[in-house]
Write a structure and sequence with these properties.
The chain is α+β, with helices and mostly antiparallel strands. It has 4 helices and 14 strands. It starts with a helix and ends with a strand.
């Protein structure tokens, strides 16, 4: 414990010395465009003091931009096809603080939180709407009897964030480039499945509860974001 305390004190003292040597602090504001795990977004940044900035960003993701549904999936040799329709959207508003512990202000530690939605929806239904549907090579039923399923996965609306990155939120020159790598805490995923037909008897409430318990550990969601920043003012 004493070693850890001594290390923290040393880092704080060395950071203070480096700030004292920085005779040309870069002040002002900046705007940015970004792309990453949670889609595309815009942001603004303001310097609170040398080495400490605050950023406000908004990111939007729609999986249909990259994947055109439906996705056809075959159940196996001789079986019929299913249509999978993913509908993943995310809209996050974030407030994050960047702390640059070193004089060069390239490396940064990031902390903050986001608010928004990030629901994951998947519809499953038979490709054929009428006639005989082959569940397996030797098992058939009317297509109307198979039914449909809609899987809904949700997390917390407020998501604390911790991470690190490279690049200035407010560039030294007019243009800058940055990378953020971190994790959001979104809470244990919550599952709901609306289903009809045969799927309702195959996928029971107990099955859904078991799945929810198995995925409760996936409370942390990784984030990787690249940003292009433009400095405003001096």
């Amino acid at each position: 414990m004493k070693k850890v305390s001594s290390l923290l004190v040393s880092i704080m003292l060395s950071s203070g010395v480096l700030y004292a040597q920085d005779t040309k602090p870069y002040v002002g504001n900046a705007i940015s465009i970004q792309a990453g795990t949670y889609g595309f977004g815009l942001g603004v940044a303001h310097q609170l003091k040398s080495g400490l900035n605050v950023r406000l960003t908004a990111d939007y993701l729609n999986v249909k931009t990259f994947v055109k549904p439906p996705i056809k999936v075959n159940l196996g040799d001789g079986a019929s096809d299913l249509n999978i329709n993913p509908d993943v959207t995310s809209l996050l508003f974030s407030a994050k603080f960047d702390w640059h512990p070193f004089r060069q202000k390239i490396f940064k530690l990031v902390a903050g939180a986001s608010y928004g939605s990030g629901d994951f929806l998947v519809d499953v239904e038979p490709t054929q709407k009428t006639g005989r549907f082959k569940l397996t090579k030797d098992v058939e039923l009317d297509a109307e009897e198979f039914g449909t399923a809609k899987l809904i996965v949700t997390g917390n609306n407020i998501r604390p964030y911790l991470g690190l990155g490279f690049g200035r939120a407010i560039p030294k020159k007019r243009l800058g480039f940055g990378v953020d790598l971190g994790v959001y805490y979104s809470g244990s995923p919550k599952l709901a499945v609306a289903r009809t037909g045969l799927i309702e008897s195959i996928l029971t409430d107990q099955n859904i509860a078991d799945i929810e318990r198995n995925v409760k550990g996936y409370a942390f969601m990784p984030n990787l974001t690249f940003s292009l920043t433009y400095k405003i003012g001096q």
